[in-house]
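Pilot study result, target chain (591 residues):
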Amino acid sequence: MQKTRRTIWVAVSMLAAFISLTANAEKSANSQFEALLDAHWNEQLAQNPTFATSLGVRDYDQQLSDPSLDSYQQGIASAQQFYQQLKAIDPAQLSEAHQVNHALLKLDLEDTIAGAEHGGKYMLITNRGGPHMNLTQLPSRLPFFKQADYESYLARLNAVPEYMDKATARIRTGLQAGWVQPCITMQGYEDSISAHLPESVNDSVFLAPFKQKPNVIDQATFDAFKATAQATVSSKVLPAFRKFESFYLKEYAPKCRSQVGTDSMPGGKAYYDYRVKRYTTTEQTANDIHKIGLSEVTRIKAEMMDVIKQAEFDGSFEEWLVYLRDNPDFYPKTAEERMQVAATISKRMDGLLPKLFGKLPRMPYGLKEIPLDIAEKTTTAYYNRPAGDGTRAGFYFVNTTLLNTRPLYQLEALSLHEAVPGHHLQIALAQELDLPNFRRYGGQTVFVEGWGLYAERLGLEVGFYQTPYTNFGRLSYEMWRACRLVVDTGIHSKGWSRQQAIDYMAENSGLSMNNITSEVDRYISWPGQALAYKTGELKIRELRARAESALGNQFDIRAFHDKVLENGAIPLSLLERIIDAWIKEQVSRLS
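Predicted structure:
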């Protein structure tokens, strides 16, 4: 008996020791991984000073990012070091939550490292973006509450010439390697530079922070700050912009390429394959996605025809599109009217959110007009996330130029996508989650944009799209994203011309010709990104259908949405695993 007891005691002791060792190993691995997470995040903030400022991290307030190729390569070397350190940590030794974080950080680092193999690193210019535009957004994105904020801003203005010179050198290296945007998409690009070269320095966007004095700064100090800013903008910022304008007109524009597909550049085919994987987080090929797009276009076209019948329109699909595009009654008369309609839609949706979600973000959002200096060259709307330190709300920016190309019947879908339940709800909620910073403030485009498109459709469930026109507006937006799958892959993997892409969208979508042209130029300049919207939305809808089938009348839409959103913007494969596990758990609980 005593021997048996001794044997049992030894076994129990060994088990206890094993459990202790296992617990200690997990604790050690978790601590090591958390230290790596912190180091990686701090590195990201150091490389992106203005982003750090927006999050309330003030260690880099007087700096701009370094856009040089040397800095980029140093960032790649740093990513490779982090990757090796990450591989040395056994995920099996981590907590369940950190196993997910480990997998996501690994994916991020692999994507960063893979990007260095391609010429995309030289493409700091797109048809709607560039280094100068990064700077002109600073006055609206930086905080201006106290004296230190203005001191930091003045230091950043002083750094503009060096920033622009380094960006120009990197772009010039790309030119020499054959990496340049197509001529057709860059027509008039120089206007985005000259728009910030006013005759009077006081009209510069860089003087905007000095239009209103914060109460905590005395008048004499504020006047001194303003005088310094005027002198710096006049002697440093505007000359740097003129220098960049000269570079664009004399060096860049003359070397623009005649073909629009990425395969017209060295290594362009491999680059597009990389972009497809990056923006879909799947193993689908460009050809796979092209076929999915064609199928979706056919399906949505049938739904559009049903709506046209409901409108009792006597004519063909093409005649219906002409009717919508040419009838002035469908368009706002003033910028104020467009903003008011967007605000009314958004406020109405605010009150309906509890029907669809159990958890809502604390941070509010507002509406603003897109700045006029960029409006005509940019999209119909966009969203800017809240400041990480809570000092700035999220904002839904609405384009109020070219009003005869922006029909009101599309505003319901647009507003639901950009504000709530779309981008603001998802992004603001992610920032408030108890997750590592790289997940709270980053994530996968396919999730973010897939959710935005899915959010448009949610309007059907809470009383939006009550007329054939607004419902057609919703369908035209869904068709727009389906056409993207066809057009983006067509341009970059099937040799489509710009005109072929424009014609395809004109034949199938309800978008105005101005929007279509702008969008096609975007796909040419920003390959692969447009694939994210439909790819992500289709997966979310697939998972919802799976949950509804398994749970029947026990399906809880609020719980489903909360589960989809509770991990931030994750890859589709991980989202699928999470939702499948949730469905299994719900079935077990309800049985």
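One observation from the pilot: Residues 17-21 have pLDDT under 50 and may be disordered. A full batch analysis is planned for the follow-on phase.
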